Amino acid sequence: MSQWQMNLGGRPLVIENGKLAKQASNAVLVRYGDTVVLVTATMAAQPRQGIDFFPLLVDYEERLYSVGKIPGGFIKREGRPAESATLAGRGIDRAIRPLFPEGFRNDVQVVATVLSVDKDNEPDIAAMIGASAALTLSEVPFYGPIGGVHIGRVDGQFIINPTVSQAAASDIDLLVAGTKDAVMMVEAGAKEVSEHDMLEAILFGHEAIKETVAFQEKMQAEVGKEKFQFAVTEIPEEIEASVRKKATALLAAAVRGSNKQDREAAIAKAKEDILQQFAEEMAEDFTTSEPLIRDMLDKIIKEEVRKMITIERTRPDGRKLDEIRKISCEVGILPRVHGSGLFTRGQTQVLSVATLGAISDEQILDGIGEAASKRYIHHYNFPAFSVGEVRPMRSPGRREIGHGALAEKALLPMIPPEEEFPYTIRVVSEVLESNGSTSQASICGSTLSLMDAGVPIKKPVAGVAMGLVKYGDDFAILTDIQGMEDALGDMDFKVAGTDSGITAIQMDIKVKGINRAILEQALEQARQGRLFILERMMETISKPRADISPYAPRMLTMEIDPDKIRDVIGPGGKTIRKIIDETGVTIDIQDDGRVFIGAVDRTAGENAMNIIKSLTKDPEVGEVYDGKVTRLMNFGAFVEILPGKEGLVHISQLDRNRVEKVEDIVRSGDPIRVKVIEIDRQGRINLSRKALLGDEPAN
Asked: Are 277 and 286 in contact (CB under 8 A)?
């Protein structure tokens, strides 16, 4: 067994190799503080035939025993990955996928199993470094290693891998990954941070990454395996020359067009015509050459789009490099929902719907993370019809979960705190049309829906997707990229925020050489685009509606003595269920005595509040109550003045005249108005009817 150690963020990072999971291509055990993650990398012996992509699979497995928990439910074992696990696996995938060689088609699987968790040392960082180390030490061809770090900022100082307390005080939550030469992946949430500060945070993280890369290079020099050599089919020069001669002009014309479907149809028609020419010319040899010709056609399309953008400084749909597609915004288009917003940008269209619920509707997070629940939830759906395709409708995949999480990060800093707006808020973004930037369109549509729902967000949020295209020494930064530019470009850079700063950012880079100057220009261009989009949105709705939808629950809040919670709940929940059944409300009681009452009918909510007040109110001397006689004794009558609270009307306090028998004045079950005249040291309540034989009103 081999072991190496370095310092990362002031804590020891230890990697062990050669002891566990030895039948995988390679495996490492990563220890970061008391966090322990086993990461394996395994490669199939043969390439997968008939595919035009690299088959990489990254699994991030959270085990609840790592935090001393037993899974809930009947089965008592881990099931579908939690959202946090899906996002962690997606982050590793995004960081390493660009670093495998072109044409490599062997299946590769990376599995990170979280075995032990120290809350101050995030397992996703250990897993990301472990994935890189396992691949680097294995025979899998991999242009790494990479490193990854979380960056926070407290009191103006950047922190590597902040602890739980530091993260709570930080205004930046940044995950950055990269090689020693370049940043490859960025994911961040922030509290309206400037573009300059965000860039400084990214570059600060990259310096720490360089140290982890050097650490892994030392490991590789000591025990790394020889890399697997694979054959890549080269396109013969004569086929390349022939395809270029026949296809370049046709494809260069086909890739130009403002309408996505027309452009795709033109490209498909051009390919079909070219292939038909080759089929006629090559006869029997065409079958073996067809895959090479198709690869060459795709190569020409990529070249022509890149030349158009970088040299002609125009785009496939005719826009300028910094031009945003036509924007349309609508709100209130669904009559019965609590809030709705339709955001259309070119051929990308998203309908976002906001729903307000009780505090008890918050999402419970049963995972290994620190958070136990969340009251702002954002979901993103991407059906096949949005791109004109036919596919079965299935549960959300990594992409949908990732885009929903990004939109959630972007809007979360603007959501009012529970004390100001005691609701659980769920926003669902339905992608209706897609031609790039759907995640950012969902942010814009969700802002519209929240304001339409009357949620008092602090500021509106908008997002824009940036792109980078390089061709030789030339490059161009694109604002509001469409699908073709995303697929054929070198960078996808999503930035969301308010007019004051960034609230979320996501970046994936496919090439080396993205320097500080390029990132600065991209961030500034994104800021200008974001401000432009915000102006268009504000023309439709400039501020949140003054009131919530009549179909949304009205939330009434009150505070009671925590010691009285049991009086409201009652034995076995009997009392609170009775209140809910009688009034039709929802009631949520917090441990600190805060009570949230939700009711579509405000009168019903007030009735429930009055019942709770009566259950928790302590009688005071001088107060008057309409009670009910519960028991008769020789010396007086017991009267219930509040639910569960009785007092005694002594026989001498029943009437102004002398009373011989209690039954002469009242009987069990009779209503009676009484006044509290004394509460003794033992808490016993003495009442008087005699004192109220005038017309004094009752409480």
From this structure: no
